[in-house]
Fold:
Amino acid sequence: MQSANLGAVRFLNLHEYQSSQIMSDSGVNVPFGIAAHSVDEAVAAAAKIGDEEVVIKSQILAGGRGLGTFTNGLQGGVHIIKTSEVKDYASKMLGGTLVTKQSGAAGKPVNTVLLAKKMQLAREFYFAILMDRTSQGPLIIACSEGGTSIEDLAESHPDKIIKVPVSLQEGLTDEKVKQVVDGLTVSGDKDAAADQIRALYNLFIDKDCTMVEVNPLAEDVDGNLIAADAKIGFDDNASFRQKDVFSQRDTTQEDSREVAASEFDLNYIGLDGNIGCMVNGAGLAMATMDIISLHGGSPANFLDVGGSATTAQIKAAFEIITSDASVKAILVNIFGGIMKCDIIAEGIIEASRSLELKVPVIVRLEGTNVERGKQLLADSGLALISADDLDDAAKKAVAAI
Structure:
């Protein structure tokens, strides 16, 4: 069972060019660059940079771009090229689809390229900050080797990776900063390097980030640290106070079904099976998928309608599930606590009638107003398959395919 899209569902991700601007505003050193959305804009950007060579970078929300492959055959999503070659490369990259280790087999569309000034980099490091469950706070991960995937670094140089937990109560102390700077083996001005580490940490806290990844965090010939490539994730719960950040969301990089689900406050993740699932509660949803798999089936999605879904949300959930052509049956598993079974039943009935569902729908209801819900379904005249419990529902879903 695999996710059809490993992009951000819970957290907002931004493109490199967007992240670079936010980092620059926060006092982090970044290369000069100009985003381009068309070939003409790319040519103009290269001319503005004014150098004989420039760096052209595909902008997608997935790592491993440099080693990726376009579906049109172009190798690599990041190139150092002559300014005279920008038109040719931009033509092949813009509008193309880039497949990387982290994009999934379908790849990601390239709608923007970043033209950046070629830097004279002496060394490359890896740097990241993320939230850590174990230490219950920010965790800084740094490595004196960088410029490639952290997975490869962890395999080839595990001894060079350091992890520095930061207490939210104490903040980033001078001692922690020194530990990071020493771990990176910075050769230039260590005080200036420390300032860059503090700026990155302050960005992480001030912008409600879930992750700040800089790969590479590079050192130029003068020993200055530069965030040569960056990826930042933001907590969706902070959208109300980070409106300027969340307005930059690029939904073209996300599964269209997940985008539609978020508009109705539904939690949806597409999978590669053929039994659609609509459940209330993440734990129950996971259990439902497990039992489907136990009986030889394969779930097509994770969909949690939450504890207070309306009839409109239930209808939207069905629309999202049935938009997946691989879905051959739908299993509805509701344990009514806050969520009332009769509301679910009304949503099922309305969706079945308005959408003219062509696939079997198996319904298991239990909890608040369950008898009322079952009666509504029975009186609907629709060919719905009732189940007594979750095990029975899973068996009937698998058998219905």
Observations:
- The chain is about 35% helix and 25% strand.
- The radius of gyration is 25 Å.
